[in-house]
Amino acid sequence: MRVFPAAAFCISLAIIVSMTLLSREGGPGKRLDLELFSSFGINSRNNAYVLENILLFVPYGFVCAWNFKRLRNFFLCAGTGLLTSFCVESLQLFTQRGIFQIDDILTNLFGAMVGWTVFTVCCLAGRLFGRKAGGRGKIGKEEGADR
Hints:
This protein is mainly α and 147 residues long. The protein has helices at residues 3-22, 44-67, 74-95, 102-132, 138-146; strands spanning 32-33, 100-101. Helix content is 72%, strand content 3%. Strands 1-2 form a two-stranded parallel sheet. Helix 1 runs antiparallel to helix 2 and helix 1 (3-22) runs parallel beside helix 3.
């Protein structure tokens, strides 16, 4: 059983929920922003939020691909990131603990795709360097059997 990837996935989700729902106070005000790129480049605070949304979903994209073999497919992982982000934004809207923003969905999706890319590069690097260094290929196993 792959306990560590499953735990990392649960921790990643818990951090997302904590930062997007539990750490915010509810209140009246504008709760829906469907204007594309409305939060980009306005001021340094909004730029920090954009970066935070990206960074929040990078680990999520990584652990999705690590924990679920089907999500090693780019499009399936993208769909999962998109769905998760949509659910978070919807919960923010319905609980009045944030603003449903299209920009957040896009930046979260981008973060998940960065995480997927990092996972994929790590896997490719592991395959490349694992065969050359340490003799873990077929030859290394045969030599170890003689000892």
